[in-house]
Write a structure and sequence with these properties.
Elements lengths: L1 H6 L20 H12 L9 H21 L10 H9 L3 H9 L1 H8 L15 E9 H8 L7 H7 L7 E9 L5 E7 L4 H12 L3 H6 L14 E4 L8 H10 L2 E4 L9 H18 L5 H5 L13 H15 L13 H12 L7 H8 L1 E6 L5 E3 L2 E3 L2 H9 L4 E7 L2 E9 L2 E6 L10 H21 L40 H4 L3 H6 L13 E6 L6 E7 L4 H15 L6 H22 L8 E5 L2 E4 L8 H30 L13 H26 L3 H26 L8 H32 L9 H25 L1 H5 L1
Helix pairs in contact: 2-3, 3-4, 5-6, 9-11, 21-22, 23-26, 23-27, 24-25, 24-27, 25-26, 26-27
Length: 785
C-alpha cells in the first residue's frame, strides 16, 4: 500500500520480468573457439549454419580432449541456438559481400532515394536491347505446336535456339516507348534506325497494324542513355547523335539500375506480351489446327511486329503506371507536352544527311543515277564541267527519293530528281511500281509468243529448276531462295514471285562481282559468300593444254606433252592469281533476310580446301596402285628383285626423305607463323621449304639415276614410283612459290590465308607419299632379298 500510495498504479506492477540469471554462460575461452569458426560463415563457399555448428562441435571436442589431458575442467559446448545467434551478430553487408559477391551486396543494401527527377518529355531517353528467345516464347504460349514446318523455317524456329534483338527506347519522364526496332542481330544500323524512329511521329506504324490509339510520341531528345554495347558506341551512332545535337551518356557495365526504366520495361514486356501472342493477334494461327496451311494465315515476322506495336500502343501506353502515380504513359505525355512542348522533328533534308544511306556515284553529263532515277541540278552541272574527279559521295533516304544529297566543292548540296513524279515517293513504293511495270511487260511478252514457245513451268512441276523461263533466259535467279522441301514450287506459295522480287539471299551485289553462297554439306546452312568468275578464255585454254599433256604421251609425242603441261600450269596459275582468294573489301556482307556472312573463307570452310583434299584422295588411289604393283611383282615372281640387281641409292634416298620432311615442316610452320602475324618469318620459311624441296628432288634423282628401267620390271617400277614422287615434288614446289608470291603481293595476310592453307594441305599428302616411296624403294628390297 505504501508503494501504491507513493507511485500510484505503477507501484502495483511486479518485477518478475527481471527475474532469472541473465549473465552470459559462455566464457572467454569458449568465445575464442567460436569466433573464428563463426566468421567462416562469411565465405564464398557459402557454408550452412549446420556446417558451422558441426565445425564448432568438432573444435570443442578437440579442446576438451586437450584440457582433459591437462587435468582442466571441460568447456561447455554451446547450443545450436547460441551458434545461430552468433552468426546473426556478423556484419550483414560483409556477410552477403563474402558469400554472394559485390553485385548481390550492392543490390541488397543500396540505399533507395527519390530516384532520378525528370520533368520534360524527351529530357532523358533510355535505349537498350532485349534478346528474345522465340523458341521459349512460342513454346510456352502454345503457338509452336500449331506452326507448319514452312512457318518455322521462315521465323528461324527450326534451330534449337533462335534469338531476335528488340531495340527499345523509352522516355524517362512519361514512360512512353518512343522507338522500337526488331532485328535478327544487334548492329549499328538497328541502333541508328532506332534513333531516327525516336525523332518521328510513329502514327504510320500504328495505322498500318490497326492500332486504336495514336503513337504520336516523338522528337529529338535532349539526352540518350545507353550501355556500352558495340551498336551504341559505334561511329555511326555517335555521329548521328552529334549531328542532331543530342547529348550521350553511357552507363558502366553491370549497373542496370542506372537505366532502371528501360530494364523494368523489358520485365513488363516479358510478363505481359505472352497473353497477346496467344490471343487476338495470332488467333488465326492457333485455331487453324490441322487445316490446309494455305487456307489460314501464316505466322510471319510482320505479324510478330504487329503484336509488339499493338501491345505498346493499345495496351502499355493506356495502362496505369505505378511510376507515374497511376497515370497512363499516354496521358502523361499529352500533359507534359502541353506544358513544356517538344522540339520539332528534323526535316527531310536533315534526315537525309543524318540517317540517309551512304554510297558513291560517278557524275556524268546526265547527272547521277540512283535506283534508276536521274538526279541533276545547275550547281552539279557547273561543278561537273571543271571537276577532274567525277566520283562523289551521295546520301539518299528511303522515305523520299525525290532528291538526294551530293557532296562536291566541300559542301553537301541537295540535288532533285529530273522527274517530278518521284517527289515525296517512298523507295519501297517506287520499287513496287517498277516491279509491277516489269511484270506487266513480261506478261505482254508472254501473251505475244507463238503457241509452241516455251513458258515458265508449263507442266506445273514442283522442283526449283522450273522457276525459270527456258531456254530464253540465262540460267540464274534474281535472288537465291530459301527452300524447305524437295518440291518448293508446290510447298512454298509465291516463292517464284519472291525470288523475282529479290526477297531472298543475294538479291544484289554491292561491288558488282558474281557471287554465290557456300553452305554446309549436310543441312545447307549458309556459311560464307563465295566470289566466282564469269566466262573467260583462260579456263578453256587451261583445260585444252591439260588435255594435251595427257593425250600426247599416248602417241609417244613427249615434247608436245611437256609444252602443253607447261602452258597448262601457266594458265592455271594466272586463273588462280586473278580470280581466287581475293582479299575482300569488307569482312562480311549483308546477304538478305537479316543475315550477314563472311566474304572470305580458308581451311575446311573453303571450297578450294576441299578441292585439294578430294583431288589428293583421287591421287592417292593411283599412288596406292603403284605401291600395290611393287608388292604384286614380289609375290608373283620368285626373282623379284632379281639377284645382283642395282638398287636405289640408300644415302641419297635418306637425304631426300629428310629434306622433304623438312620442307613439309617449313611449310606447316609458315602457315602457323603467318597466322600469328609474323609475315616476314613466314616468307623466310616458305623460301627455306622451296630450297629443301629442290634439294630433296635432286637427292631423289641421284638415288635412281643408275637404274635401267628397261632391263627388268623391278627397276621399272622403282623408277615409276620415283617419277611419280618427282612430279608431285614439282607441284609442291610450284605451290610453295605461288604462296610466297601471293604473300609478297599482299594477297595473303594473317587473316586471309587460303592459298597458304591449301599449300600446307597439299604438302601433307606429298610428305606421306615421300616417306612411303622412300621405304618401298629403299628399305623393302633389302628385306625381300
Amino acid at each position: 500500500m505504501r508503494v501504491y500510495e507513493a507511485e500510484g498504479l505503477v507501484g502495483l506492477c511486479d518485477a518478475k520480468s527481471r527475474s532469472g540469471n541473465r549473465t552470459r554462460r559462455i566464457g572467454l575461452e569458449e568465445l575464442a573457439i567460436i569466433g573464428p569458426i563463426v566468421e567462416g560463415y562469411a565465405h564464398p563457399l557459402r557454408p550452412s549454419q549446420k556446417i558451422i555448428y558441426e565445425r564448432v562441435e568438432s573444435a570443442f571436442e578437440d579442446a576438451n580432449k586437450a584440457r582433459e589431458s591437462q587435468g582442466l575442467t571441460p568447456l561447455v559446448m554451446p547450443s545450436r541456438e547460441t551458434i545461430r545467434q552468433e552468426i546473426r551478430k556478423l556484419d550483414p553487408f560483409h556477410t552477403v559481400l563474402a558469400r554472394m559477391g559485390q553485385e548481390a551486396a550492392r543490390k541488397k543494401f543500396a540505399p533507395v532515394g527519390i530516384g532520378l527527377q525528370v520533368k520534360r518529355p524527351l529530357e532523358r531517353v533510355e535505349i537498350d536491347e532485349w534478346t528474345i528467345d522465340l523458341i521459349s516464347l512460342f513454346a510456352k504460349s502454345g503457338i509452336l505446336e500449331h506452326l507448319t514446318k514452312e512457318e518455322k523455317e521462315l521465323l528461324g524456329l527450326n534451330k534449337k535456339k533462335i534469338r531476335w534483338i528488340l531495340t527499345v527506347a523509352i522516355c524517362a519522364a512519361t514512360r512512353c516507348i518512343v522507338a522500337m526496332r526488331l532485328s535478327r542481330s544487334a548492329s549499328k544500323n538497328s541502333a541508328v534506325q532506332t534513333l531516327e524512329m525516336i525523332t518521328q511521329d510513329k502514327g504510320i506504324w500504328a495505322d498500318t497494324f490497326g492500332a486504336i490509339s495514336p503513337w504520336n510520341m516523338g522528337g529529338p531528345p535532349e539526352l540518350i542513355v545507353t550501355d556500352n554495347g558495340s551498336s551504341f558506341i559505334s561511329v555511326a551512332m555517335r555521329t548521328a547523335m552529334q549531328d542532331l545535337g543530342i547529348r550521350a551518356e553511357r552507363c558502366p557495365t553491370g549497373f542496370p539500375q542506372m537505366r532502371a526504366r528501360i530494364e523494368r520495361l523489358f520485365g513488363t514486356m516479358s510478363s505481359s506480351l505472352m497473353p497477346l501472342l496467344s490471343g487476338r493477334t495470332f488467333s488465326d494461327v492457333i485455331t487453324k489446327g490441322d487445316a490446309d496451311p494455305e487456307d489460314g494465315a501464316a505466322l510471319t515476322p510482320e505479324e510478330l511486329s504487329e503484336a509488339l506495336v499493338r501491345w505498346v500502343v493499345d495496351v502499355y501506353h493506356n495502362r496505369p503506371h505505378e511510376g507515374l502515380d497511376g497515370e497512363t504513359p499516354a496521358n502523361c505525355w499529352n500533359r507534359l507536352v502541353e506544358t513544356y512542348g517538344v522540339q520539332p522533328a528534323p526535316d527531310m533534308r536533315r534526315r537525309r544527311l543524318v540517317f540517309g544511306t551512304r554510297t558513291t556515284r560517278t557524275v556524268t553529263a546526265k547527272g547521277i543515277r540512283v535506283f534508276g532515277v536521274r538526279y541533276h541540278s545547275e550547281p552539279l552541272a557547273r561543278w561537273f564541267v571543271h571537276a577532274p574527279e567525277r566520283e562523289v559521295e551521295v546520301r539518299w533516304h528511303r522515305d523520299d527519293i525525290g532528291a538526294i544529297e551530293v557532296n562536291f566543292d566541300g559542301e553537301w548540296h541537295e540535288v532533285p530528281s529530273v522527274f517530278e513524279e518521284v517527289r515525296g515517293v517512298h523507295a519501297e513504293v517506287w520499287h513496287g511500281a517498277v516491279r509491277a511495270l516489269r511484270a506487266s511487260f513480261r506478261d505482254e511478252a508472254e501473251s505475244s509468243r507463238p503457241v509452241g514457245a516455251s513458258r515458265r513451268n508449263p507442266w506445273n512441276a514442283g522442283t526449283l529448276e522450273w522457276s525459270h523461263n527456258v531456254p530464253e533466259e540465262q540460267w540464274g535467279v534474281r535472288s537465291i531462295p530459301f527452300i524447305t522441301s524437295r518440291y518448293p514450287l508446290w510447298d512454298q506459295p509465291q516463292i517464284v514471285e519472291r525470288m523475282d522480287a529479290g526477297r531472298f539471299y543475294l538479291s544484289d551485289t554491292k561491288y558488282g562481282y558474281r557471287e554465290t553462297i557456300v553452305t554446309s554439306v549436310l543441312d545447307a546452312r549458309p556459311q560464307h559468300v563465295q566470289r566466282i568468275t564469269g566466262p573467260a578464255w583462260i579456263t578453256m585454254m587451261a583445260a585444252a593444254f591439260t588435255g594435251g599433256a595427257f593425250i600426247f604421251p599416248t602417241f609417244s609425242m613427249y615434247v608436245p606433252a611437256i609444252i602443253s603441261g607447261a602452258f597448262a600450269i601457266v594458265c592455271v596459275l594466272y586463273w588462280l592469281w586473278t580470280t581466287t582468294a581475293q582479299v575482300p573489301e569488307e569482312p562480311t556482307s549483308d546477304v538478305g533476310l537479316g543475315l550477314r556472312l563472311p566474304r572470305y573463307a580458308s581451311g575446311p570452310n573453303a571450297p578450294g580446301w576441299w578441292a585439294v583434299w578430294i583431288t589428293m584422295l583421287g591421287d592417292a588411289t593411283a599412288f596406292t596402285s603403284l605401291v600395290f604393283g611393287f608388292f604384286f611383282y614380289w609375290t608373283a615372281s620368285p626373282d623379284f628383285p632379281p639377284t645382283g640387281a642395282d638398287h636405289a641409292g640408300g644415302a641419297a634416298l635418306v637425304a631426300a626423305a629428310v629434306l622433304l620432311s623438312l620442307s613439309w615442316l617449313a611449310t606447316r610452320s609458315a602457315k602457323a607463323t603467318n597466322r600469328h602475324g609474323n609475315v616476314r618469318q613466314a616468307r623466310i620459311l616458305l623460301a627455306v621449304g622451296m630450297a629443301c624441296t629442290a634439294a630433296g628432288g635432286a637427292g631423289l634423282y641421284l638415288a635412281v639415276a643408275d637404274l635401267a628401267p628397261t632391263s627388268h620390271a623391278y627397276p621399272a617400277i622403282v623408277c615409276a614410283l620415283a617419277v611419280w614422287l618427282g612430279a608431285h615434288l614439282g607441284l609442291g614446289l610450284i605451290a610453295q612459290g605461288y604462296s610466297l608470291a601471293r604473300s609478297l603481293a599482299g594477297h595473303t595476310t594473317p587473316i586471309y590465308d587460303a592459298d597458304l592453307t591449301n599449300t600446307t594441305l597439299l604438302w601433307h599428302f606429298i610428305v606421306v607419299q615421300a616417306l612411303i616411296t622412300s621405304a618401298v624403294i629403299g628399305l623393302l628390297p633389302g628385306w625381300m632379298t
